[in-house]
Model the fold of this input.
Amino acid sequence: MGFGNKKIYGHGIMNPRKYLRVYTKFLHTSLASELEYKTNILIDLITSILSLIGSIFLLSIFFQNNKSIGGWEFEQALIIQGIYTILNGITNTWFNPNLTEIVKHIREGTLDFVLLKPIDSQFYISLKKITPSGFLEILLGFCLLLYCIKINQITINFSFLTLFLITIICSICILYSLWFFISTTTIWFVKTWNATEVLRSFLYIGRFPLNSFTFSLQIFFSVFIPIAFITTIPSEVFLGLSQFWKIMLEVFVTIVFLFSSRKFWLFALKFYSSASS
Amino acid sequence: MSKNIIDVKNLSKSFYISSKEPGLKGTIKHFFRRKSTSLKVIKNVSFEIKEGEIVGFLGANGAGKTTILKMLCGLIYPSEGSILVSGYLPFKRKENFLKKITLIMGQKQQLIWDLPPIESLYLNASIYDIDKFEAKRRIKKLSEMLEISDELFIPVRKLSLGQRMKSELMAALIHEPNILFLDEPTLGLDINAQRNLRKFLEKYNKETNATICLTSHYMKDITSLCKRVICVQNGSISYDGKLDQLLKKLSPVKEILVVCRSEEDAKRLETSGFSIKNKAKNEITIQIKNDSITSSLRTIINNFDIEDLYVNEPPIDEIIGKVLIKNDYDF
Done:
């Protein structure tokens, strides 16, 4: 997620082995923390399954009287649902527990501890926690995609897998950057919970094909909040419908988003004044 | 002669602070048009701290102590002036600089709430590039110094405040920093826990020659740990020097309770030229200047029939406390 082997502000050259070691510790401690509350994990798992069933049911209602929406048939739209489920799983596993914590760190002044550690602060606050119940959603998403491969009679080959992997990674990075960007604004505005909630609501839109919206909305969801890139392009790749330029555009948008969210974080830190004691 | 480890010159810091009028009208006005004013919270501050020194920062709430501390460890960018800590510009937060310092805040915690402290300690060890065996050795050493062992394996949320503070200290010291910034470390602790913490800091300073900068509202922390104090008033330094000299300045007199054997002696003492504070039968409280204590006591013992005599140290908490609250005090 943009933590390449490059010089970054304050910490010189990153040592990948150290970061891997620290990340292993993050995984260990956050799993151990979550396992302290068994019932909570069980509830989360049930919620994930029910949420997927609900979404598919909703989708099937849309398609009850229409054979296709925006040129997408039900079997094809299920792919978007599968990708959305994977992304939602990733959001619940990593983004939600970590990026909502930024607001808490800033409000309560505990960001001080993060900034005084000899480790990249963006790495620390983006990856410290995980919510393991999100893994089930990721798994369910992949299962749904496997089912879609079967019903849409898609042939799997190397280029299909590579392109799909590239687009899905790009989607994850765009979503992360957007969320991180909004969370960073907390440094000035202190409370931005609502903004991240709005982002999540926009993500729900990603469950439907971009073509099913009006032209102006398509532009809005491609340019201002690139939800279109997040689910539609990987789905098109999945169906072998995507043009090469669209994939390249997604890669370009990803780089721009990652780079600007990183710069924005470093810029914002200069304004961080730490909560008063 | 030890070298300077902290060098601060003409340091100033301004913050933009918005103010709000009371009531609904004020709230609406505040929502649409926020009035912000630039407030200079630190004004042209300069000081130096030598390696191994323990320096106490004294000041009323909002005087600027914590802001100075946070600028020293690189959390807040200074508006003007220069800071050099161990040869580094703190606000650049270079990795080697961060490995040398630590910040301990009495009211904030870094330990993972749902897990035993030992997990946070090993996590911090990996962040500071300390291998498992070395981490184990340091944890053992620190736990012995802090007299904590089984508690390291109990979830933080189930520990008492004192035990939690000890664990916080271990988490903050696992990388063996040589500059410690402590912001009210004894806040909320009971008397025993406060004393243990002070004992530990004293020992740590002696064993490692670490420099300690401390802010506290508990005067006992300052008086038992710091030989030197820096008083901060309205963002400026009003006193920088030895604590005992400050106390002499603030309280130039001592109170002596003299219990005479007879009322006659008491009457004689009353009229012998001493400054009398209280008199009850044959017990007289007199005030004597610090520089004439010995000679005055000699006079009293030689010339009067004394049953008992008490020299009362001035109540430091009260003296310093009053001075810090009264911003107009002239040092």
